[in-house]
Amino acid sequence: MRLPESQLAVLEAANTTDEPTVERLADATDLKPAAVTRAAFDLREEGLVTVTESTETDAELTEEAREYLDAGLPEVRLYRAAVEAGADAEPVSMGQLIGASGLAGPQVDIALSNFARKGYGSIDAGELSADPETDPEADPEAAALESLAAGEAVSDGLLDSLERRDLLSVSDRTVRTVRLTDAGKAALDEGIEVAQTVDRLTPELLTSGEWQDVEFTEYNVKADAPQVEGGRKHILRQTADRVKDVLVGMGFQEMEGPHADADFWINDCLFMPQDHPARTHWDRFALDVPPIQSLPDQLVERVESAHREGVGDDGEGYHSPWSREFAEAVALRGHTTSLSMRYLSGFAGANIEPPQRYFSVEKVYRNDTLDPTHLLEFFQIEGWVLAEDLSVRDLMGTFEEFYRQFGITDLEFKPHYNPYTEPSFELFGTHPTTGELVEIGNSGMFRPEVLEPLGIEADVMAWGLALERLLMLMYGFEDIRDVHGTLCDLELLRETEVVY
Amino acid sequence: MPVVDIDPDELRELTGKKQKSDAELKDDLFNLGLEYEGETDDGLMQLEFAPDRLDRLSVEGVARSLRYQYGEDRGLYVPKTNDADWKIQVDESVPGGRPYVSGAIIRDVTLDDEALDSLIQLQEKLHATMGRKRAKAAIGIHDLTMIKGQSYDDEGRPSITYKGVEPESETFVPLESDAEMTPAEVLTEHETGQKYADLLDGFETYPPVLRR
């Protein structure tokens, strides 16, 4: 049998009784651990050795822990200072004790919280009393630090509590051990020849013509290789781009506008009464910034009149209070319909001669309670079509066509009410794994009370769809927090198949 | 959005559709804009619907919607009314923040427990929704036989009075209490009074409906 030199060295260093680690073999063979590992795996392929993997935990003292090794744990120092000041008999003011203990900065809080946690005494109304029964000199955490510094093992419970205090950085590492098999031993007994193989082709080999005679190392194409993660687009952004492509393909133009806007554009234009629950401070992110006073006066007048008296011969309006001050106040937009109002009013400079189609895929902000289907911010797919003689059938058809591009063909429509559309309906789709109906959007035909002040005589059908809900239906996510926000798991995003 | 708790059996009873399964009912309700949200501990269906249809805040209202949907009922339901034989006397002293009052007497009513629960649910949900937690409107329901009308006008019609009273004026016994309290005491000591005390912030006089 012929083997490359490194493999032969590892094979000779291994034996059938003991199981040396890769590191020990590296010492014995004078090879790098990575080379030993590679050789061991190659030998395993030949059945000459077995390789066993296990995970070991390394605990390393942090810089903070090293300070405490010298100076003592802050809570112990506090206790010593307290006993010295007589706090084991009568409460002593905390300021005095902290000065005496020499603690400063963040260590004061660390001392106080651990003092209380370990029951060294109590703190009440700025005074501290030390429990004379406890013995901080025998503090198990301090002892564990000493042991770890001396290279001794400590219990898992103590490791946990030290890690929680950031005194240890704990990391896992894979340990591989190698054992000679009977076949390996037999091969050694028979004698193994060193194969002088060449693992890279050099200019010298080429020019000298030596390459014709040497033996090349075989590539092991089945060997483990480190996984390389390239940067890639977040699936949420990817889906947003796809939505844009689809809508542009359906003849829509994109709108843009501010995330923080006057309530006038967010709500008043939409015939949302100023005392509507969604406009109260519970649901709205109001911003403490100067009001937006540059609203178009004539439009403001017409909108106010629609709120107060309604529009048309039989219009009623709300007869409710309406103030320009509230209309000018600034808040984070709860929907991107604020953009639609800016465009439909002509304020954004868009052409509003029918027919027109506009959309946006942008962030909106709502003071909702967080749960698997609600976040404080999410992406809304806003859109509207301005044309003569539109009806809800056109609207339903538009949705059928739009969602079919994403493989969603089981839409359901539920009649709904919005202050700004009539008729209105919500859209639902069936979740691919749970089978539950998921609300995916809201839509309708803008009311005369919205359109007349804007000066629009044709019909407008409009919608707000949630991008994240579309994602849930496409990918089967059950929790919106899986794809959006700080709890997002990178691994899941890396491994999620691209649906296009 | 408002949510109403409905006993599906009662719904079957009121619509005359005893053979409808829960799943069929949910389907019919969805198409009407009532979405099934879950079940209460007592097995009632929790149905969410849009706030323009507050007539659906009771099982009777939901049943009426369904009967229309099934084509078994037609037209707008308008209850029969006649000239009032009682009168609400509104006094000048009513504080400006609560200027309006209205009332109705409904006769020939037999309330069993279910109907009473439904009525109370309707009242409470109206308070919470259209009444904006009683800031815009509050409703009282009373047994007429327990109200002593005070002869007021020339025709001798019985009446109740709506007027402003001083916070520290005559005492009365509020619901769910057995102590006499002044209006101010109700706001500080009675549970419901405390809950809604904010509504009367800055009022110099309080607006009770008095039955005598």
Mean pLDDT of chain A: 88
β-strand number of chain B: 7
How far apart are the first and last residues' alpha carbons of chain A, in Å?
A: 53 Å
The DSSP helix count of chain A reads: 20
Biggest beta sheet summary of chain A: 7 strands, mixed
Ranges of chain B with pLDDT <50 over ≥5 residues?
none
The total of helices of chain B stands at 6
Tell me the fraction of residues in β-strands of chain A, as a range.
15-25%
Largest interface: A-B, 8 and 11 residues
Question: Could you give the count of β-strands of chain A?
Answer: 18
* SSE string of chain B: EHHEEHEHEEHHE
Helix content of chain A: 25-40%
Oligomerization state = heterodimer
The residue-averaged pLDDT of chain B reads 86
The largest β sheet of chain B comes out as: 4 strands, mixed
The gist of it:
The complex is a heterodimer of chains A (500) and B (212). With 500 residues, chain A is of the alpha+beta class.
List the helices and strands and how they pair.
The complex is a heterodimer of chains A (500) and B (212).
Chain A (H helix, E strand, L loop, with lengths): L1 E3 H9 L8 H8 L3 H13 L3 E13 L1 H9 L2 H11 L7 E2 H8 L4 H12 L3 E4 L2 E4 L9 H10 L6 H9 L3 E13 L1 H9 L2 E3 L1 E2 L4 H6 L6 E2 L18 H15 L3 E2 L5 E3 H4 L30 H13 L14 H5 L1 E3 L4 H8 L11 E10 L11 E11 L4 H13 L7 E7 L2 E10 L6 E10 L1 H7 L4 E8 H9 L14 H6 L5
Parallel strand pairs in A: 1-7, 8-9, 10-13
Antiparallel strand pairs in A: 2-6, 3-5, 4-5, 11-12, 13-14, 14-18, 15-16, 16-17, 17-18
Helix pairs in contact in A: 1-2, 1-3, 2-3, 5-6, 5-7, 8-9, 14-18
Chain B lengths: L2 E4 L1 H8 L6 H10 L3 E5 L5 E4 L10 H11 L17 E4 L22 H16 L21 E2 L6 E5 L20 H7 L1 H6 L12 E2 L2
Parallel strand pairs in B: 4-6
Antiparallel strand pairs in B: 1-3, 2-3, 5-6, 6-7
Helix pairs in contact in B: 1-3
